Structures are given as structure tokens and as C-alpha cells.
Amino acid sequence: MLRWVIKNPAVANHKQLNSGDYHIGRSLTKYLKRRGIEVVTDYYPNYNVRRNADVVFVIRGRFPYKTSKKSINIMWNISHPETVKLSEYKRYDIICVASEKYAAILKKKLKKPVFSLLQCTDTEEFYEGNDGLKRDGVIFVGNTRGIKRQCVPWSVELNVPIKVWGNGWEQWIEKKYIIDTYVPNEDLGQLYSKSKVILNDHWEDMKKYGFINNRTFDALACGLPIISDYHPELEKLFPKGILFYNNKEELADCYKRIQNSYSDVKKTITSLTKKVREEFTFEQRVNELLEILKKYKKK
User: Fold this and answer.
1) What CATH architecture applies to the domain 138-279?
2) Which is deepest, 99, 186, 250, 263, by most CB within 10 Å?
């Protein structure tokens, strides 16, 4: 039996369940175990514990990991690409990057095998399950991290009755718009299935390097229309269906389309939901990783 150790940057404290990285690791573990693989997870700051393993799989988010030559080391760089230097990539046997654009760049700079492995969703937790009930509400799920994420204040200024879940919003918008500081992950799929549209944005370095956030795939798996900041790689992946904005005026136009042509927007999203469920799932990512590993071992 293969033994994998997952190095997960979700900090091992009372807020761990709030971390998206924690749930990415949880879903990966589930589908790896279904393929008969033993899985152990180390969380930050107990990140650099040495364990006997065939594979050490590092979810590279906020924190680097010190690799060992005793195992096959695989990195999946899902965020914060600006913090990862070429010297860090070179320490790995296999590099997976959640961006087709950046994977192509790294392939030219590294002699190690590099693969694009975009973020994805767990279709057992995110699916359209509102049983035909009418969708309602404009939602945003995300923390400020001390930054004024303009799309939310713009929505308030446009008199959109947006419902916000996340930390730090009191300094940017009135409390009446803030529903809670956190949505438990087990409730997120249900929220997405009953909402009318979700507002989305990306951190600038994610957009610069072509990374697409996992919120996009979770929402689409639930058949939820998305209004997102303009992202060339996202538009390339889904040329039709997602509504894009670059500024407050374009955001207003997106809301008008939702208000005036919702059935048309929702109809287009249905085809994207099918694509996500076929191509962007954790089950598929596990299958891809095992195939990559199989080819690597043959060399």
C-alpha cells in the first residue's frame, strides 16, 4: 500500500476549520483513500516533521516546506505564487501549479516535470440541490485580510442588498450587510445552491500569475451564477457564462444583467456546471496525480 504524507498549511489551532487549505486537504485525503492509499496529514507549524512515506505531497499556500530525499516530493502550488522562488521549486521531484499560464512559464525555467493542476471542487459537497426552489440573494464569502476588496463596497454603493460572510468587513461596510464572520464548510454548498448570484474577486498576484480561486469551481458545481473581477485565464477557461467587471460601472452592468436576464444567465451556467463536474473535481485531480506519479516512477 502506498503511503502519502500531506503537508497542509492550515494552521493547527482553533481556527483551522475556517481554512480553505484544510478542506482541500480533507477532500484530497478522501479520494486518495478510496484508491487504497494510506494518508497522514501534518499541519503547520508541525509542517516539517519527518515521516516514512512513499510520497510527500505539499499543498503550497502560505508556507514553504523543507523537502527530504527519502520520499518523492510533490508540490501543488495553489496560491501565493509570488512567495515561491525558483530555488524552492527545484527542491521538488514533481511540480504541480494551479495555473496553466504559470505552469507554461515554469516549464521553460525548470528541468523538473511541471504540470498544470487547476483548483477544483468536491462534488459530494457542492452540487445543485435546492429541489427547484427559487434562488434568492446576492452573496459574498471571504475575509478582508485588512484590504478593502472594492467589489463589496461598490455593491453597497450601488444599493445592492448584498449578504456578506467574512472577517474584517465592519470597517468597510455597515453591519446590516454582514451576516456572519464564517460559513461552516458543510453549509457552504447549501448556501450556494439557494443563492441567486455570488460576487467573486481574486488577489492581484493570483490574477497576475493566472491562478483561479476554488470559490469559482465550488459555485459553478452548485449551478450558481458568478460575477467576478475580470481574469483573462478565467475567461479563457469559461468564455461564456461568467459576468466580468473591471470597475464599479461594469459591476453595475453585471447586476443589471442578473436583474433583467437571469434565466438566460442561469441557462449558460448549467453548461459550465456540467464541465466542472466532469473536469474539475478532487476525484479527477487524484486520478491525475496518480497517473503523473506512475509515469515519474517509470523514468
Assistant:
1) 3-Layer(aba) Sandwich (3.40)
2) 99
Partnered with residue 56 across adjacent β-strands are 5, 73
Rounded Cα distance, 186 and 184, in Å: 5
pLDDT in tens, 53-89: 999 999 998 899 999 999 999 999 999 899 999 999 9
Question: Who contacts 298 (Cβ-Cβ below 8 Å, separation ≥6)?
Answer: none
pTM of the model: 0.95
Give the span between the Cα atoms of 217 and 120, in whole angstroms. 6
Q: How far apart are CA 11 and CA 18, in angstroms?
A: 10
CATH T-level fold of 3-120+281-298: Rossmann fold (3.40.50)
C-beta of residue 197 within 8 angstroms of C-beta of residue 258: yes
Quote the crossing angle between the two packed helices 20-34 and 282-298, to the nearest 10°: 60
DSSP 121: B
User: Which residues does residue 6 pair with via DSSP β-bridges, in sequence order?
Assistant: 41, 57
Closest CA to 193 of 271, 278, 254, 128: 128
Question: Following DSSP, what letter does each residue of 152-163 receive, concatenated?
Answer: HHHHHHTT--EE
d(CA 241, CA 190): 21
User: Which residues have C-beta within 8 Å of that of residue 85, sequence separation ≥ 6?
Assistant: none
Could you tell me the three cell numbers for 267?
A: 441557462
